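Progress against Task 2.4 (sequence-to-structure conversion) is shown through the following example record, which the project officer requested during the mid-term review.
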Amino acid sequence: MTEAQGNISAQETLEWTDDEIIPISAISHHLYCKRQNALIHVEGVFQDNDLTVSGNIGHTVVDQQASLVEKGLHRETSMHVYSDRYGLRGIADVVEFPENAAPIPVDYKHGRKKLWQNLDAQLCAIALCLEEMCRSEINEGAIYHMLSRRRRRVVFTTELRKVTLQAVAEIREMLVLKILPPAIFDRRCLRCSLRPACMPEANPSLNNPFELI
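Structure tokens generated for the chain above:
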């Protein structure tokens, strides 16, 4: 598929091969570290550390499929979402369905409340799926940061949608061509669970791993 297919119009529907279907979870990994994403989705490598285990434990509250009504608000947890238009598949942690309003996707993430574009783009991809499934324009969602127990509003701006679709196009190329980007040794590596498999120290860049990124 060409890069243009990452930005196809609402009127078009494409048929994707299995290799071209993008798991929504790959978007966050890709925008954080392209090599990390390729190790997981091209090489099939994944390892846990204390951070991933802690995140998995905290995430169990939304890991079971359920349909709930709380204080008059309908919520679906662990909801499967898809977009045939963009070739996306994944699971939404929570989707809220306010009465007479568009659905609101909510992602649960470990850590404290902080702006992370990679997390926002992953949530935006879920919104793109819901727009297609529900035939409704979705302008915002939210990320619940479990460590600080704070909910952060995310607006699906034109720019965020562009970033999300560009990431989808890049990931699709990576999956189809089996691309493994070179390692870059920087601060992201310090707590990465894939560091033993990645071995960034073997190919040090000009970046200092103790500098903020």
